[in-house]
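Deliverable D5.2: sample structural annotation.
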Amino acid sequence: MAAEACSLRVGRAVPDQVDAVTSALAAVRCPYVSGVRFEIWTAAAAVQPAVDDLLAALAAFGLEGRSDPPTALVVQLRESDSTSIEALRAGVVDLATLLGDPPARQRAEALAAPEQWWLRAAGARWFVTVHAALYPPQHARHWPLAEPIVTFVPEWAFQALFPGGPTAQARRAVRAAFAAAGQRYPITGGAVSSVETG
């Protein structure tokens, strides 16, 4: 699996990064987060590049039953990717170009469009969400750390949680959990959501 050319460097997160991201994930209000294990990666400038390792992890965890509980991969982007919604979309496109199956750039640009949630990478489909500090604290995608994150949940795990897709009851449960914390859903959803909430 060869990654498409991209300026982004991605590698394994160091223990301090793993601890910070894991702690922040534990505070996310989605009631389904607790049923997923997270593996943390980073695009920090000083990282030792390990894109082939990340693609191998995507290939392994993308297969049903390879991890119990399901493993989601989280990539921490650069702080500069959180300066504006345009910068965030560009960072997500760079990452998805690096990881996506061919035609990677086309898939990446589609993922960054409104109401798009899925990326095909390493031979599997992934449900993708992005959280960043540029989203205000009352926003469901608010992230307390300076570096935004992109979370990849394998399709099989998503379907195990929501056979046939998320039900109206499941959607209400998620929204209610965020609402209880004073957080609202964005007007426009997708992997990269709008900053405005409804």
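Annotation notes: The first strand starts at residue 11 and ends at 12. The two ends are 41 Å apart (CA to CA).
The annotation will be released with the project's public dataset once the embargo ends.
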